[in-house]
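Quick one: structure for this chain?
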Amino acid sequence: MSPAYSPARTTRATILIVDDEANNRYALSQVLAELEETVVEAASGEDALRFLLREECAVILLDANMPGLDGYTTAELIRRRERSRHIPIIFVSAIDRDDEHIARAYAMGAVDYVFKPVDPVILRSKVTVLVDLYRKSAEVERKAALERFLQEENLRIRQEKLEAERQLRQVEERQTAIVRSLPIALYSADVDGGFSGPRFISDVIADLVGFTPNEFLNDPHLWVDRIHPDDRGRVLNEVASIPVLGGMSTEYRWLCADGSHRWFLDRAVLIRHEGRPFEIFGSCLDVTDRRRVEQQLIQSQKMEAVGQLTGGIAHDFNNMLTVVIGNLDSLARALKGTGRNFDRAQMALTGALSCAELTRRMLAFARRQPLQPSAVNLGEVSRNITKLLGRTLGERIVIDVLVQEDLWNVLADPAQVESSLINLAVNARDAMPEGGTLTIEARNVGRDERDADLPEGEFVLLCVTDTGAGMTPEVLERALEPFFTTKRMGHGTGLGLSMVYGFVKQSGGHVKIISTPGHGTSVRIYLPRTDAAPSAGAVAGEDLSLSGRDRTILLVEDDAGVRAVTAAMLKELQFNVIEADNGARALDIVDRESDIDLLFTDIVMPGGMNGFELGRLARERRPELPVLYATGYSGSYAAPEKGADMLAKPYREADLRSKLRGLLPSCAGA
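Got it. Here's what it folds into:
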């Protein structure tokens, strides 16, 4: 019940007798006793007023003459109070019988005026009438209160109903919005029919696969027929087991209306009716993006694992190749002009250099090759390479070069840029056996046309596009994997694209391949912009001779074979050579010897001090001392300064001579 409503009272009505004489109060109480109502006595006007502050009564019998507050003043005060002003008052007086007193009594709100001694019957009759009137008034008020209560309750219930309906609509709208925003479709189907002939399928299916719910309802076999053939048998077996297992959860590929395959996570549960299998209720969630991310993660982990393996063997393998190539190079020079023996030495050298190139490519895709980045203009590189590609690509290939005016320079290793461009051109040729067009494009990429995967900064795009056969989605997905190739056995190592990918990533760039079967392939390379200008190359006809007479080189190499071959090369160039097999001994020599002109050190060495640390400590002692670093793999070491001079193993005598000419210019042409 609401606090605003109280049921009809069943208690007696209260009659208040106010008189200063106890005998009078007693006499009146006896007269009214037959009414079986509650009679309350008050000895003064003050007591009567205090009682009326707490209680309610049906009628008041008030003595006109009392000490203190007389009856007239008490009546006036009762009428002033909101709580008591409606209570009927009967004046009782023994002496005030004149009209003036009677008029005053009525003026104070009296409903009657009786004289003592009172007639019991008349008094009881008057009081009974007033009590009945009180009861009827109370009943009217009760009914009015009940009516108000019922109206308020009805209004409250209607408001609560409207609020519940509003909240329900909000929940339904929210749930509908959530379901529509998610790549998920709900469906129900017969237990016996499986995916054939669904009873219901939600509207979201149209956004996921391109077919409307009505198309599925009208064609019972649409869903099953478009499951990927490699997944169909497995999925149907799992559907058939739902009545036994009570549900299923499986992933499979599905051919959408646009011809693409998307991955779906299908979860279904069995609904029973009276204990028997009745219906399948399920949901299809598009997990294509999740699968793509998982594949990218697997690919990244695979390349990282192969990269670690490559780095682990590269150092020792390149040391061995340095010994082999260095000795064969020296032997070939000694046997030049001797005929058959020279040819054999030259063939062996060519084979060793091929091994070195294979190792270099493996390090390239693993992003662990030593780079010598500098400012490069991709437009000039593209034009120069095009001049060399004519014979390589053949007459059936038309080469088109598009270079934007005011092309930015990029920061990259020039040799790796040229190698990457040649690799992409050869791949494009192989994709166009009947001939076609090879387009090489170089243009600036502003911040407003960036690829989503590009890091922050400005880039130059080098795009190589062919009109060949293109790649299927399966081949495109694996195109950058090391050793993956679609060429027949003996034609390609599978390292071309992966080498390009590794070099570009190591240079802070990005590679993207766009290919469609029958419409060719476009390989897009993004390299970071630089404000530096390209350095001038060697001048044609420049004297490249070198003499190390009266110059001393400190050679630091832990591999005895490599150290011996390198020392022999340096001695052929007339250098004095001091050898050390680790950083600590080399540092002692730097402290002891004052006539060292250059420090030539390997990077990866045992003993707790690598080549970069040795170079830093040596330069602290002799700031002007040139340092040349040699490495077969130094992926886990940071160079002490930007632009440190490095020579990649395996190196030949010509490579070493070229580096020494730059570091010891006074030896050039001596």
